Amino acid sequence: MAPTTGENGVAKEHAAAVTRNYISQPRLTYKTVSGVNGPLVILDDVKFPKFAEIVTLTLQDGSQRSGQVLEVSGSKAVVQVFEGTSGIDAKHTTCEFTGDILRTPVSSDMLGRVFNGSGKAIDRGPAVMAEDFLDIQGGQPINPWSRIYPEEMIQTGISAIDTMNSIARGQKIPIFSAAGLPHNDVNMETARFFKQDFEENGSMENVCLFLNLANDPTIERIITPRLALTTAEFLAYQCENHVLVILTDMSSYAEALREVSAAREEVPGRRGFPGYMYTDLATIYEVYPPINVLPSLSRLMKSAIGEGMTRKDHADVSNQLYANYAIGKDVQAMKAVVGEEALTSEDLLYLEFLSKFEKNFITQGTYENRSVFDSLDIGWSLLRIFPKEMLKRIPQSILAEYYPRDGRGGSD
């Protein structure tokens, strides 16, 4: 192709590169697929294959799929196909080795767009012109010593998180859940809170979605979170935006790892997952419906709450709620052994608090959004079940200002 000059010529070449997914021509192609095993394709007689190299597979109907070399043995290569291996014919499928690792095109124009799990736009919008190509495996680690200490709270709209496990900007928070529990609802409500905030401010163009749906290839889930995090790093570090990343559901990611591990016939670990699963998850993590608040913890909460950030009574209310809820749980266990008749009047107060705390504070409607001040006020309404003398974790000055209100106890 003859070189073109001028801005129009450069724009045309860039647009042409987008349509062919930035693939340079010509390339050496192979027609040596020897077998397909689950999400894996085995290639023979390949010259100098490299680990983690990206491979483009062209099927008989002309459609293309991307894969990554997982294992190399002499002239053989095992390729993991991101879009799945359904329909791949060993006789008619050709393969191209790109000579590069998996990089994703990133641009500030990705804001307001929707992409599939492989990073391809699915919102019927124009192709995204890449500003840079970033390695999705390496990331951009930050020296903890040089980073600014997180001291600004993020409001999620969920009382149990905002009041008792406040999240600071720059913090990672995993939500652990047992099988069958609606942990996705917490992520959806957090996302919905920010989505509503964006819509009210007319800034929905500040959202970038990567979707791997139930009917999408399972193996695609392995790269989806890394594509999202790489895009978030670009928007944060190079475009200097504040970015909130929500990843759900990581159990599906772990199951995709298990599928690849089983196809490679690796020795499984616990529950069939590969032994390197936690190391793999660490490369991602480091880069309500009822919540069990007692074992929950936010290590940076102390730096993101208090006067000038939330409210000066925040820390004291949180500590007192924790203490009373823990005592209430102990009283509930004791009641199961000795019966309610053997409980003291103070014990009955803790039981009343326990019931109303779980009903009115922790349990929260899916579409009910509470500000941190609303959550603190609900906490105070519950603490007023007790006389002042029993609230020993709250200073007298705070009690004098916030305790004397009309009404007693949480609403039924």
Which characteristics define this entry?
two-stranded antiparallel sheet, 7-stranded antiparallel sheet, Elongation Factor Tu (Ef-tu), domain 3, 412 residues, alpha+beta, 3 domains, Rossmann fold
Descriptive account of the structure:
The protein is an alpha+beta fold and 412 residues long. The protein has three domains: 28-101, Elongation Factor Tu (Ef-tu), domain 3, CATH 2.40.30; 108-151 and 175-293, Rossmann fold (3-Layer(aba) Sandwich), CATH 3.40.50; 313-403, no CATH class. It contains eleven helices and 13 strands. It has helices at 6-19, 159-162, 183-200, 224-238, 250-263, 277-285, 301-304, 314-338, 345-362, 372-383, 396-402; strands at 29-30, 33-37, 40-43, 54-58, 64-73, 76-81, 94-97, 103-106, 114-116, 132-135, 153-154, 167-168, 209-211. The protein has a seven-stranded antiparallel β-sheet, with no helix packed on it. A hairpin with a 5-residue loop joins strand 4 and strand 5. Helix 9 runs antiparallel to helix 10 (372-383). The longest helix is centred in the last third of the chain and has 25 residues, at 314-338. The protein starts with 5 loop residues before the first helix and ends in a 10-residue tail after the last helix. Mean pLDDT is 81; it is low at 407-412.
